[in-house]
Amino acid sequence: MTPVLSVSALAKHYGGRSTSARDALHDVSFQIERGELVAVVGPNGAGKTTLLSILAGVLAPSAGSVSASAGKVGWVPQSPALYSKLSVLENLQLFARLERVEEPHAVVAQMLEQTGLGARAHEPVGRLSGGNRQRMNVALGLIAQPPMLALDEPSVALDPDQRERLWELLAARAGAGTSVLFSTHNVSEAQRYADRVLVLADGRLLFDGAAPALLAQGGEREGGDLERALVRFLRERAGQAGA
Amino acid sequence: MISLLRKDLLILRRSRLLVGLLVVYPVAIALLIGFAISRSPSRPRVAIVDEAAPGETIKVGSQRVAVGEYARQLFSQVQSVPASTRAQAIAKVKSGAVIAAVVIPPGIAARLSSDVNQVQLEVLYNGDALEQSLARSTLESALAQANLGFSEQIQKAAGAAIGTLLSGGNLGTIGAPEDLIGLSQIPSTLGAIVKRQPRGRDRTELERIDAFAGFAAQNLSLARRVLSTISQPIRVEAVLLQGRRTPLNTFAVVVAASVSLMFVCVLLAAGGVALEREEHTLARLIRKSGGAGSAGGSLVSREALLAEKTLLAAGCAFAVAFAMLAGIGAFVALDWSRVGLWLLALAFGAVAFAALGVAIGALAREVRAASLLAFSSSLPLALLALVPAGSVSSGFYDAIGAVSFVFPFKAALQALDAAVNGASPAIGLALLHLAVLAAVFAALARVGLRSVE
User: Fold this and answer.
1) What residues of chain B lie within 8 A of the CB of A124, using their CB?
2) Helices A88-98, B2-14: crossing angle, 10 deg rounding
3) Is the ipTM of this complex over 0.90?
4) Domain B45-151 part of CATH 3.90.870.10
5) Backbone phi, then psi, for B416, in 5-degree steps?
6) Do A81 and B281 count as a contact with CB atoms less than 8 A apart?
7) What pLDDT digit, counting tens, does each position of B297-319 carry?
């Protein structure tokens, strides 16, 4: 089976040769299959946003390659990227035109329905709540019907109900064949929704596998606490690196 | 690009306060600057206390000059406010009704006639350092003009007295003999008498007197010519080396339009680019949608985005500035046959200012910072470009010239002045300058957009 996305020996270096220079990513390689839901977890500064920004084409890597075999990568940035003076409908229509969507009216209507924002279609985005803005943000990432979607902490501003609806939407897209890669601080989300988990720390990919395997490596039994397992896993790795 | 342009126009339409400010504020600033430049300084309000006796005159030879002539000369230089006493004049100065008061002392005729004492006028003024400087400079100029006018009257009287001495006639002075012989007539009259005299001591003496009379007449004639020269020793003839003379009011129109063009362009372009960053939409627009390193393009290229913002800002500013020119044209005589050149100058100026604006927007990253930077850099740089040569030291003027050269205001002003008034330098040079600046600022903006975060 051909992967939808192949990442090979990816590296990102910030700061040139100055004393503050650092490697945000170092030799990161993985693949994502069609319809897979993959979570990227790790502590702050691990390189999650840098990785997603490179996959989305916002940043250029210092080394390595990214290959999206099926074409476009939809992108949902951490901060909603929307025109607050335009209405929900106008934002969707604008990006549908810019993305050269074949049937823009149908796709916009579908996005309004999937995000549940149909009743607020004519409301300026600036007046929407944080949760609704994030739903719009996701809708814009999906508007070109991309085979691969990259989301940077998509649930961070949402209440539990909104989170649930977001994951229902993403699960439905994954079920329809869209590959989804998302970063999160909420490890339980990775445990519940992801088919696979990538663990990043200090720009290095330390783990690539299913959640039960990470549980096992963190010393937890099946059905145990993935967050506790992750913390233990990271400490052990840090200890090995220190030794 | 059309979709982006439509989106930005929609956002502008919904930002009525911003659009209102963008139009009203620069127009107000432009009109203020225009009026400040075009209005010649009005005559200062000065209280004049004339303590000289009415009808007092100074005697110059056989002529008399009224002392009131000096007051009349002074009145013509200032907007005189009557004050009957010194105390009243001081009260007017203190209340701010006048910028200064001039007291013409009593007995001015006697002092002028004494040949010993110079007459002293008392000037009273008040206020802060700026008002004091204004009062002093304007009054010094007014008093110098009045002195000049009064001395001309005295010189005319002296000239007339010398004329009578040379040509003879009636001196008009009580007790003076009537039908006096003129000094210039003596040599011919005396010469005829001398020829009839036998040679001897008397004839020799008469010949000496005759020679003296001739010499004195020549020198007195010269003195009269010198007096007329002293009254206005140098005449000024102004010659404009290049272009047409620009009337101050049409130049003010050009300044006002240029200032409006600059503000609308720079603020709109800077704000437009910075808004894309602030709304986080810049990354969405210009990211490579197939991922980093992919062959797939972005929704909008950086160049197209900058071109769209430049076009939008330049178009709006062009419309505002042209409407302003056309509106003012109803009150000030502008040469409408040159309207094609106006449009050309406005278009080049608008693009150069918009390129500066997108560069500021790309580098500033936030709308507030971009607006502040655009405003705080544009206004002083525009004012610097208006500093006339000779009003500051040559080194400082060179520095101002260098700063003005790398900022589009002066070039836009020169292009518009050449287009509207036919002033020099030629419009082609200014347009070329604007085109180069537009290219440089566009390149700078492109560098500023290298990073989208």
Assistant:
1) 14
2) 160
3) no
4) no
5) -70, -35
6) yes
7) 788 888 999 999 999 999 999 99
